[in-house]
């Protein structure tokens, strides 16, 4: 009889575990957005209806730079914050779907202090003697650090931030390649990490690694579809989408937005003299210069032919003019190949600026205003910047 009861308990526990994994797997299949995938994974690790860890972090492997980068962290920063969060979840009877929908409708998780700390972390993949993340990634095996073994890594920035006496690190795999790692602990409740915890998190990690890879492949495909093949800038179609989105943001936040149109002066002379292959080299070099000399917040696009556009969020006309003039001077000084072919013996550009909302409330209106300013610059002798009048 006792043996039968044990078997019933074991079967019930197995059913609960499978239900949890099934629910998390289904949630991961609802999106291909990487940040949503990461949140679903970590929510599955920390939710009371999931694996129930107090806190979890997710790192992704950057093969190119040979580093492991912090991407997202979920969990309270102290006991008081934990009690508030857990009480709310209990009172509102929030299940996994509720928690995931809360993330999609609010950015509060991404703004937490703990998440910001996690996102600031970058560790070398080669440093397995000093860093447990590197060891877990290189070995491809779960790593359970106890109060005794964790001392070996006391200088690791991850260990310092967490301040925990017991940690579980589980590699994420896709096709036998480690592409990330989950770290989980119980720093509030101090519940010991059991063999069942390790087994469950490993099973979740196996599915999570594939979900992350699918998301990354989707984002790469989408990026390529939106990228100009010659210059690697955003193409004309995506420029239209970006401008629409940024203008909607500007309208909602009551901020300015400026658009710069850039056109190479006398480019036909260069193409006719040296051919289109030489012209393509000029376009590539100019695109690289525009991208490198622009702010991170700006969107540099190839509009078509020898014409480029730059979307400047949160930028009024005066600042846009200063940015455009700096670019114009940088371009004039840059030693482009065979630029002596140009009439003035150097490659120059003309620039036109339009600003939302004064010069247009719709994308098409802003583009037209910027184009008119560009034509004005061309008519005034080229190699200058002109702005649409602020009415």
Low-confidence stretches: none
Quaternary structure annotation: single chain
Radius of gyration: 27 Å
CATH topology of the largest domain: Beta-Lactamase
Instruction: Enumerate the strands of the largest sheet in spatial order, edge to edge or round the barrel.
Output: 3-2-1-6-5-4
Secondary structure: number of strands: 11
Helix content: 40-55%
CATH class identity of the largest domain:
Alpha Beta
CATH architecture descriptor text of the largest domain: 2-Layer Sandwich
How does this structure look, described?
The protein is of the alpha+beta class and 391 residues long. The chain has 2 domains: 2-225, GAF domain (Beta-Lactamase), CATH 3.30.450; 236-387, Alpha-Beta Plaits, CATH 3.30.70.270. Helices cover 49% and strands 18% of the residues. It has 13 helices and 11 strands. It has helices at residues 2-28, 34-46, 79-91, 96-105, 113-119, 132-139, 157-162, 195-225, 236-253, 267-274, 276-293, 317-333, 363-379, and strands at 55-62, 67-74, 122-124, 143-145, 167-174, 177-185, 257-264, 299-304, 307-313, 349-356, 385-387. The strands form 2 sheets. It has a 6-stranded antiparallel beta sheet. The protein has a 5-stranded mixed beta sheet with strand order 8-9-7-10-11, sandwiched between helices. A hairpin with a 2-residue loop joins strand 5 (167-174) and strand 6. It is elongated. The chain starts with a helix and ends with a strand. The mean pLDDT is 87.
């Amino acid at each position: 009889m006792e043996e039968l009861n044990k078997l019933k308990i074991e079967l019930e526990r197995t059913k609960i575990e499978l239900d949890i994994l099934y629910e998390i797997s289904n949630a991961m299949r609802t999106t291909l957005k990487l940040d949503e995938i990461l949140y679903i994974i970590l929510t599955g690790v920390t939710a009371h209806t999931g694996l129930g860890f107090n806190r979890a972090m997710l790192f992704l492997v950057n093969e190119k730079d040979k580093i492991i980068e912090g991407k997202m962290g979920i969990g309270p920063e102290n006991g008081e914050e934990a009690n508030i969060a857990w009480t709310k979840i209990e009172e509102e009877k929030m299940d996994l779907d509720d928690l995931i929908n809360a993330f999609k409708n609010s950015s509060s998780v991404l703004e937490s202090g703990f998440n910001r700390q996690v996102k600031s972390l970058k560790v070398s993949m080669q440093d397995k003697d000093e860093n447990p993340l590197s060891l877990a990634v290189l070995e491809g095996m779960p790593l359970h650090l106890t109060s005794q073994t964790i001392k070996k890594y006391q200088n690791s920035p991850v260990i310092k931030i967490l301040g925990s006496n017991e940690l579980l690190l589980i590699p994420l795999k896709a096709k036998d390649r480690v592409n990330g790692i989950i770290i989980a602990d119980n720093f509030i409740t101090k519940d010991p990490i059991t063999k069942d915890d390790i087994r469950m998190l490993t099973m979740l990690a196996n599915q999570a690694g594939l979900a992350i890879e699918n998301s990354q492949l989707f984002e790469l495909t989408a990026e390529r579809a939106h990228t100009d093949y010659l210059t690697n800038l955003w193409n004309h179609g995506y420029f239209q989408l970006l401008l629409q989105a940024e203008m909607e943001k500007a309208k909602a936040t009551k901020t300015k937005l400026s658009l710069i149109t850039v056109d190479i002066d006398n480019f036909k002379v260069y193409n006719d003299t040296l051919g289109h292959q030489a012209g393509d080299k000029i376009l590539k070099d100019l695109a690289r210069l525009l991208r490198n000399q622009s702010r991170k917040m700006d969107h540099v696009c190839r509009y078509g032919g020898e014409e480029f556009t730059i979307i400047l969020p949160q930028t009024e006309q005066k600042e846009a003019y200063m940015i455009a003039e700096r670019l114009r001077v940088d371009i004039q000084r840059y030693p482009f190949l065979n630029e002596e072919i140009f009439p003035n013996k150097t490659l120059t550009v003309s620039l036109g600026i339009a600003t939302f909302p004064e010069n247009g409330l719709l994308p098409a209106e802003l583009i037209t205003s910027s184009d008119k300013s560009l034509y004005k610059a061309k008519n005034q002798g080229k190699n200058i910047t002109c702005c649409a009048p602020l009415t």
